[in-house]
TrEMBL record, chain A:
Residues 1-26 have a biased composition (Low complexity). It holds the Pfam family BPD_transp_1. It is found in: Cell membrane. This is Sugar ABC transporter permease. The chain crosses the membrane at residues 36-58, 101-123, 135-152, 187-210, 241-261, 297-317. Keywords: Cell membrane, Membrane, Transmembrane, Transmembrane helix, Transport. InterPro entries: ABC_transporter_permease, MetI-like, MetI-like_sf. GO terms for biological process: transmembrane transport. It is a multi-pass membrane protein.
UniProtKB/TrEMBL annotation, chain B:
This is Sugar ABC transporter substrate-binding protein. InterPro entries: SBP, TAT_signal. One of its GO terms (cellular component) is ATP-binding cassette (ABC) transporter complex, substrate-binding subunit-containing. One of its GO terms (molecular function) is maltose binding. SUPFAM superfamilies: Periplasmic binding protein-like II.
From TrEMBL, chain C:
This is Sugar ABC transporter permease. The chain crosses the membrane at residues 31-52, 98-119, 131-156, 162-183, 204-226, 262-283. The lineage of its organism: Bacteria, Bacillati, Actinomycetota, Actinomycetes, Kitasatosporales. Residues 94-283 form the ABC transmembrane type-1 domain. One of its GO terms (cellular component) is plasma membrane. It is found in: Cell membrane. Its main location: membrane. It is a multi-pass membrane protein.
Length: 329, 423, 298
């Protein structure tokens, strides 16, 4: 609340002087300004107040909380300075979770990117029944991570010889293995990555399809006249024309992967020991355990801060490098 | 014309959705949780985790109704919570919607010292003497009891007699024998032993204790010790043999894997004995987790659930009267709860003695094992203390680091949490 | 939302009806391509088949080493049992999900459209500051702030309440930005006519601008509905009491629970995804446009 009203007050103050010197009829102008202001405030107020409370106030409070000892409470007051941050950085589990999410991102983003691009190129060329094919790939997008985790954990990748992955493995002479618990070799990655792939590929495929449809036909015709075919068309024309789409897709995939929580929680939750025996911990999982499991909201807030700062930094850096996010002003 | 209609319907839609929001919002504000009997002055919200045995939920609702009959001014709303019970409970305790009475599986002194649960010395009364010492000691913080143990759960190793006989294997007497048995019983299609789906969560503490180590004693985290390192290294051997069943559909607390014949040895609780008996008849036996050959002791875990009163709730007195009535006074209901659904040991020794099902056959053996080898988790054993051990052990058995270093780091981290709980 | 759709302005989204230019097909043989597409389609649809099969099977048959393609006797009672189980709260959870997504989708989209319009078309000093405040929240990832938001909502008494589940999700800065870009491209002449008719600024928005954005509203609304229906972390944190569970939480709870009734779990999954799959089949065009719009205009 405070943030939002501060903002409007500041904006109002900024507004009044600008209205004075301009125009031959100051009185009328001012009335119009007030009306414009009224309309502007009315239309933006809900979003501004909402973002003010649930983003700005929340972050402010949480920042203060991260300097407090807050166990079993979310009240401020027991100031401990930087203790929570010190403890956070001393905890190998938090650092480990950052490394692991980075590995996960590095694995899942290129795979999803290549698959969705490949799929889009395939589907783009389909002449008859394109809508049906597109629907088939898009419909997993409707499925939640919870449902997908359930399928993956209980049906596809369970440790029973009758599990589907084990059955398929059996055809190739593989021994039945517990997929989600096997770390040597890290088979659980296969479950994690295929799950995300199934859920997300359709979404990004649609983005690429939109990009492909925007490529002017003449470019291909001109290139065809030059005798370019197949791979060369793809490399010389299609891919460069998809540059903007590709950057957007990479960005979205990166942010989505970095915030992974749902499937990790549902695949690796182990009853009374929670998710502490999971072969991978994501930062969000770690924060969830710190706050909801150990009830340490101060430490959890400190972690939320470090994570938020990291994502903002990476987003900024990526934006600077690729020029993504500069609106069409 | 059509434009006009469009606009009207759009407006109607806007107004409609705003009304919808307003309506929903008021509905939530006036009745955040809902339920509760009408006419009663106070409604207690009582939380249980979801017990797996059929009939348990109906039973606790029945107890609640009997309580209201005896105390007409206090209604009881039972909330049955499956899934991540501790997480759900912890978040709820911060709010107005917090339960007034709740059970906890791993009692932690932190709850008492942070003032989240009320001292219950006036709840026990003269019956205090009939509670077994372990159950009472478990919930005592600075000389005051902060909960009433509802049931003792005996958790031990179950084995199929016929399968072991056929393979010519004797019930394992030490850890080396257990490892050999698990390996011998593992075939291409089946594994020899099931301790939990991750192979670590239950096994890591069991290994530390059966190898003569300590989890937490006297406020000191003990699982960084050389004995603990030896224990976790031994556990790694079990994993390296690939003789553990991992990634089954249900976890260790559910007897399905054992009862369906998927695995011949499983770590499970006494509660499952009725279901195991139905499936296997007398073709099973129970054992403690065997000791290491060098200086360990066999281990049986005595778990169970403790009934606590939310100290920050507005109905502390009513909540106390409920806990006193049900878990101290109503010995018949305690017996019913402990033996009519899953099988548990009532913490009141007189009630336990009167529970017929515990006095015969394998159940009797289990009770004897508990009396001889039974140990409860330390009362500082919450997620921030147990988590580091499980994480370190999980890494160690997967060969992702040196067990000694992993455990030392984990113990150091857990020590901070223990210190906080005790301060 | 679909009724009386006004003429659709170019949203920049692809129009599926138009067939795209195609480079000469020479790289892959059409037969190979057709086959691989067919196989991939089957692969992508296979999990749905599995879900349905598992939901109709007997519990013991699911873990049996003998593979069955389809149960001999379909056990529809797995579905009815879902709603009879007092511990599962499936009916209530579905109702909660419907209520939450049903409110979130239209309200958040309309709020975003209103703010987007103001930011695009009402010129007041300080507008840039407001825009910056909105854009800044875009960079902060929603789920990394689950804990801060929990702290605020918790202190306002929002845990275990429907408003605690709904309200924090009503403000979507990304949609505000998309609507702003959309209204920036709205021709001035359209508004000018309204102004001559004596419409004020609110009138211009409500009677002129809003009706032109039907397709945007439908697309972003559909995406918002899906997102809200499938949300997990926030309802997990805030909806602790069974009365406040959403369908996802009810399902996850049973996935991580003490005893597991596998066919029931899959029946629950089928029930949970059925509304969205239906929506995908009916409103696919809007969803595709929504994805294309929100993905490319960031």
């Amino acid at each position: 609340m405070t943030t939002a009203s501060d903002t409007t007050a500041r904006a109002a103050r900024a507004g009044s002087p600008a209205a004075v010197p301009r125009g031959p009829a100051p009185a009328r102008k001012r009335r119009t300004d007030r009306r414009a202001w009224g309309a502007f405030l009315l239309l933006t107020a809900p979003v501004l107040i909402g973002l003010g409370v649930f983003k700005y106030v929340a972050i402010g409070w949480s920042l203060l909380l991260s300097f407090s000892e807050a166990e079993g409470t979310i009240a401020l007051g027991d100031w401990v300075g930087l203790d929570n941050y010190r403890r956070l950085f001393a905890d190998p589990a938090f650092g480990g979770s950052l490394v692991q999410i980075l590995l996960f991102t590095l694995a899942v983003v290129p795979v999803t990117f290549a698959s969705s691009l490949g799929l889009a190129l395939l589907v783009h060329r389909v002449r008859r029944g394109r809508a049906v094919v597109r629907t088939a790939f898009l419909i997993p997008t409707a499925v939640s991570y919870v449902v997908a985790s359930l399928l993956w954990k209980m049906s596809l990748f369970n440790g029973l010889p009758a599990g589907i992955a084990n059955t398929v493995g059996g055809w190739f002479g593989m021994e039945a293995v517990p997929w989600l618990q096997t770390t040597e070799p890290p088979l659980f990655w296969i479950a994690l990555i295929t799950l995300r792939l199934w859920l997300q590929v359709g979404f990004y495929m649609v983005l690429f399809l939109a990009g492909l449809q925007a490529v002017p036909k003449e470019l291909y015709e001109a290139a065809a006249l030059d005798g370019a075919t197949g791979w060369r068309l793809l490399r010389r024309i299609t891919l460069p024309m998809l540059r903007n789409t590709s950057v957007a897709v990479l960005m979205l995939q990166f942010i989505a992967a970095f915030q992974a929580f749902d499937e990790f929680y549902n695949l690796f939750y182990g009853g009374i020991s929670g998710t502490s025996s999971a072969p991978v911990q994501t930062p969000l999982l770690h924060l969830y355990n710190t706050a909801m499991g150990a009830q340490n909201y101060g430490l959890g807030s400190a972690g939320a801060f470090v994570l938020t700062a990291l994502i903002v930094l990476v987003t900024l850096a990526q934006g600077r490098i690729t020029g993504f996010g500069r609106g069409e002003e | 014309m059509s434009a006009r209609r469009t606009e009207l319907s759009r407006r109607g839609f806007l107004a409609g959705s705003l009304l919808f929001v307003a309506g929903a919002a008021t509905a939530c504000i006036s009745d955040p949780i809902g339920g509760g009997a009408k006419g009663a002055g106070t409604t207690l919200n009582v939380w249980y985790h979801a017990y797996g045995e059929a009939g348990t939920q109906q039973a606790v609702v029945r107890y609640a109704e009997s309580f209201t009959k005896a105390h007409p001014d206090i209604a009881v709303k039972v909330t049955w919570v499956p899934g991540d019970y501790a997480g759900k409970l912890n978040a709820s305790l911060l709010t107005d919607g917090a339960p007034d009475v709740f059970e906890v599986g791993d009692f932690s002194e932190g709850l008492a010292r942070r003032g989240q649960i009320a001292p219950l010395d006036d709840v026990y009364g003269p019956a205090k003497a009939s509670f077994n010492k372990t159950a009472l000691g478990y919930v005592t913080v600075d000389g005051k009891p902060y909960g009433v143990k509802m049931i003792d759960d005996v958790i031990m190793l179950h084995y199929r007699k016929s399968v072991l006989d056929k393979a010519g294997i004797a019930p394992p007497a030490d850890f080396a024998a257990l490892r050999a048995a698990a390996k011998a019983l593992t075939t291409k299609k089946a594994k020899g032993l099931f301790v939990s789906n991750d192979g670590v969560g239950e096994a890591a503490p069991a290994m530390v204790l059966s190898h003569g180590g300590e989890l937490v004693s006297g406020g000191e985290v003990g699982y960084g010790s050389p004995k603990a390192v030896e224990a976790i290294t031994a556990l790694k051997g079990l994993h390296d043999d690939r003789s553990l069943l991992l990634g089954f559909t249900t976890d260790w607390w559910d007897p399905s894997a054992f009862a369906q014949g998927v695995v011949p040895m499983q770590w499970c609780g006494l509660w499952a004995m009725p279901a195991i008996k139905t499936a296997l008849g007398d073709d099973f036996g129970v054992l403690p987790w065997p000791a290491s050959a060098a200086g360990g002791t066999p281990y049986v875990r005595v778990g169970g659930w403790v009934s606590c009163v939310n100290a920050k709730g507005r109905k502390v007195e009513a909540a106390k009267s409920f806990v006193r009535w049900l878990w101290v006074e109503q010995t018949d209901l305690q017996k019913d709860f402990a033996s009519a659904y899953g099988l548990h040991v009532p913490p009141r020794t007189d009630v336990a003695a009167a529970t017929g099902k515990l006095a015969e056959g394998t159940a009797k053996e289990a009770v004897a094992l508990a009396a001889r080898y039974g140990r409860s988790n330390p009362s500082t054993w919450d997620a921030s203390v147990s988590g580091p051990l499980v994480t370190a052990a999980a890494k160690a058995v997967r060969g992702q680091g040196d067990p000694a270093r992993l455990l030392a780091d984990a113990a150091r981290q857990a020590q901070t949490a223990v210190d906080e709980q005790l301060s | 939302m679909k009724t009386n759709r006004p003429p659709r302005p170019a949203t920049g989204a692809p129009r599926p009806a138009v067939r795209a230019p195609r480079p000469p097909a020479r790289g892959l043989r059409p037969a190979v391509r057709g086959l691989s597409i067919g196989l991939l389609t089957l692969l992508f649809l296979a999990p749905f088949y599995l879900m349905l099969r598992n939901a109709l099977m007997e519990s013991a048959a699911l873990t049996s080493p003998e593979w069955t393609w389809w149960p001999d006797v379909m056990r529809w009672e797995n579905f009815t049992a879902l709603f009879d189980d007092p511990a599962l709260h499936m009916g209530q959870a579905l109702g909660n999900s419907l209520l939450i997504a049903g409110i979130t989708a239209p309200v958040s989209t309309l709020l975003a459209s209103a703010a987007g319009y103001a930011l695009a078309r009402i010129e007041v000093p300080g507008r840039g500051v407001v825009l910056a405040l909105v854009v800044a929240t875009l960079m902060i990832p929603g789920s990394a702030t689950f804990l801060p938001t929990f702290v605020v909502v918790g202190s306002m008494g929002g845990v275990n309440t429907l408003w605690g589940l709904i309200v924090p999700g009503l403000f979507n800065p990304f949609a505000v930005l998309l609507f702003r870009n959309f209204y920036l491209r709205l021709p001035r002449e359209i508004e000018e006519a309204g102004r001559l008719d004596g419409l004020g600024r609110l009138g211009l928005y409500g009677r002129i601008a809003l009706p032109t954005s039907g397709a945007m509203l439908a697309s972003l609304g559909a995406l918002s509905f899906i997102e809200s229906w499938n949300a997990f972390l926030w309802p997990l944190v805030i909806g602790q009491d069974p009365s406040a569970w959403t369908a996802q939480i009810a399902l996850s709870t049973f996935l991580t629970s003490q005893t597991i009734n596998l066919p029931g779990l899959f029946a629950g999954a089928v029930v949970t995804i059925a509304p969205l799959v239906a929506m995908f089949l009916i409103a696919q065009r809007y969803i595709v446009e929504g994805i294309a719009t929100s993905g490319l205009k960031g």
